[in-house]
Specification:
Strand content: 15-25%
Distance between the termini: 45 Å
Shape: elongated
Number of strands: 11
Strand order of the largest sheet: 2-1-3-4-5
Radius of gyration: 21 Å
Length: 230
Amino acid sequence: MRVLVVEDDAKVRSLLRRGLEHEGFSVATAADAAEARWQVAESTVDAIVLDVLLPDADGFAVCEQLRAQGTWAPVLMLTALDDVRDRVRGLDVGADDYVVKPFALPELAARLRALLRRGAVPRPATLTVGDLTLDPASREVRRGGTLLKLTPREQALLELFLRHPDEVLSRTRIVEHVWDDQYDGDLHVVNVYVSYLRDKIDRPFGRSSLQTVRGAGYRLGDDRPAVALG
């Protein structure tokens, strides 16, 4: 497995290279964000160890950019900032895990192996279907350039649909994910909240992205009109 280590401190970079190679990894290195982007663009990377404090950008921005460009290799943030807000920020921009300096190489290698077992699964920082977006960190929902105001329950329902685009979701599955497994009320509540959601994401825009699949459930798709070519 090929790991890219992005670390501006030459001693730490060398330590990580030697330690991870001893653990059986193939290691490439980068000293700054620009070199890291080049490495990712030019070669296959199975995982990334990314320092937060880089000379030309912070690691949070680098991780967010990589995710926005469709790079889904697991990212392990390496940081001297042992602050809950920084850890939350890293996870919200698409990182998978973090290790605080000073660190033990065996633990870092074990965390990398655990991330590699998951594989490069898409984990976008912003969920998007067509021109409908939800940022789970800021809780902002937009249709095109319009900011929408949703209740927490409506946001949870929309997030479920955005994480499963073009997939038919049954009312039972929706209740289990948006309410909880202790809910024993009428499944008709799903119909009500789907209607609430349509009133905010579809009807004001003359759209019909949230569709009813009779006898099966509901599906969210991209209903933007096709652009004629030529």
